[in-house]
Amino acid sequence: MPTARPGPNLSRIATSLGVSVATVSNALSGKGRVSEQLAERIREHAAELGYVPSQAARALRTGRSGVIGLVLPDIANPLFPKLAQAIEFAATSAGYGVLIADSRGNITAQTEAINRLVERGVEGLVIVPRRATRISAASCPVAVIDTASTPGNTVAADHWQGGRDIADHLAELGHKRILVIGNNPESNVQNDRVGGIRSGLRPDMHSSTLWIERLEREHGTGCTLGLAEKVREGYTAFAALSDLQALRALTELQRDGIAVPDMASVTGFDDLIFSPVITPGLTTVAMDMATIADIAISSLLKTIQTSGSREGMLVGADTDRVPMQLIIRQSSGPIAPGNGDPTKVDPAKRASQTETS
Amino acid sequence: MPTARPGPNLSRIATSLGVSVATVSNALSGKGRVSEQLAERIREHAAELGYVPSQAARALRTGRSGVIGLVLPDIANPLFPKLAQAIEFAATSAGYGVLIADSRGNITAQTEAINRLVERGVEGLVIVPRRATRISAASCPVAVIDTASTPGNTVAADHWQGGRDIADHLAELGHKRILVIGNNPESNVQNDRVGGIRSGLRPDMHSSTLWIERLEREHGTGCTLGLAEKVREGYTAFAALSDLQALRALTELQRDGIAVPDMASVTGFDDLIFSPVITPGLTTVAMDMATIADIAISSLLKTIQTSGSREGMLVGADTDRVPMQLIIRQSSGPIAPGNGDPTKVDPAKRASQTETS
DNA sequence: CTGAAAGCGCTTACAG
DNA sequence: CTGAAAGCGCTTACAG
């Protein structure tokens, strides 16, 4: 004998009201043509009894679970909270639940995570792929959130434009030598961001790039970035490709007695949780997570509604690029035009002082 | 006519193999007594066809959805990634899926989130309650993760002991005046942490507490904490109740030219993602998320298995206290015994210099 | 406007 | 060891 559910079901409501289950179902869903009077009585009674519809039965009958899956490369990623929150909100608003899976570790784990979700009957998947992973369509519609340069991508922040905004900002402040600080050159996102920065430099500006993972492979985790040395070499701006790296740069500079933003500027990406609260506040470029989530969810649902739900396909042929927004918190630059603050020291001079000490 | 699922089902496998669905079901689940030979053939054929069991049907039949819900006060909380990751891992290992819900905003949203998950048929709920919220049993088993001083709590890090560890550490470094920096005195967690710190102070040590939200209500968001002034008053250690506040303290001190850890120590709580990468690394106390998640999930599943799944009840009468672990990254303190480093300046002297400048 | 009935895909006693 | 059958709770054409 199948396990009985504790709560009331349609049949119980129907019997106690002397009507058929069909009518109760119709009244509650508002679909069938039930007299408003009866419908009202039914709704009332259902509420009284604390009726909760069985999603399982509904899913079995209709073939739709009302659930989508969210696969993340690493939930511990600091960007994740905002993304998950935005996706959860967009999905909930559309009446869907969100099942999460962490593809931590390797690509195998990612595949397993996808399979687990499919087995749980998700109608579609939102995937933030692991670095340099190509999602070959799973057995349900998939929306990929990564970067425009990822094949099959659905929606992404316009990382390139974000980079250009940073370059513009630094140019306006009068910086000439920029050190870009990234983590890993394999990342599509980080590459787009550097590309954008470089493309936005003025002819008289120069940049070079420091990849932290590479540095750490040589000198060990947590090694110094040698930023004070860079300041001595004439760099006045440090453009990190993520706020996490920006924070590392900022604290290292401060520790070495280099005043930020008076002697050097630091910028980041992503507007992570800590960026507004540190001193000085971090100038950064933020992804519009709400819009990204809305687009991902709505494209996904559109595909689900159109196709039979179990066909695997990637959603969205051309990546939707969502603008990133520059948030200026550290306003002063060393050579800012019209910057007449007398307490500010010429960075070149100060740098040479540091050098001789 | 009900919507047909695209994939193969038990019946299709049964027909094509000339056996009954019951036998296929038994073979695949390994429960029934099916000859190993036939079972093998069935498994093979099922794999060939790419059979994926219908969770909906299984759930309907057995009354168990195989899904639990995770309700978070604010997914954007920086602590969330680690928690969610740990919960997801523990649940997945036990064969359960995890549905997320964000009770962002107010208590109403929390209640709605809980209801949504219950309607989706979760078998149990892991809830991290909003500040000062008491979870009155929902209509399914609930495990609460908060702090031991929250009524009905199931499992928590031992925040009090973590505080005592911080106090011990600061005492050993020779600090006498400690400024505790918290965010909100309404938080049970933060209160436990302060309590622990105070209880661990030696008789010759003194502490006072700064609540940031209170300060900001008076002076505006992002106002200075006035820490340099505190250094001048003789405080040498800043014990924040979260790494986020520690970071704020650290950067403010650095900006004001106070060397950390030479002139002042800064400690935090939670070992957030950025804590190991900043300079100097942050000394902090970490929650053992894996253990906390394991306990939450296993108590929850135990209750689910015992009781009929729809009864509302809180899991775990006495809170399980999981030890927190001190992570020392900033080792030097201003008055550390045997600390003969000549480059180190007496904090009081340096502070007075700052004062006259 | 309302009801009887079929069927989604599975599991589980029960009979053979 | 294997199969026939009931039933989980719902929705949806269809008939009245």
UniProtKB/TrEMBL annotation, chains A, B:
Residues 331-357 are annotated as: Disordered. Pfam families: LacI, Peripla_BP_3. It comes from the Bacteria. PANTHER family: LACI-RELATED TRANSCRIPTIONAL REPRESSOR (PTHR30146), LACTOSE OPERON REPRESSOR (PTHR30146:SF153). This is LacI family transcriptional regulator. It comes from Rhizobium metallidurans. Residues 8-62 form the HTH lacI-type domain. Keywords: DNA-binding, Transcription, Transcription regulation. InterPro entries: HTH_LacI, LacI/GalR-like_sensor, Lambda_DNA-bd_dom_sf, Peripla_BP_I. One of its GO terms (molecular function) is transcription cis-regulatory region binding. The keyword Transcription regulation applies.
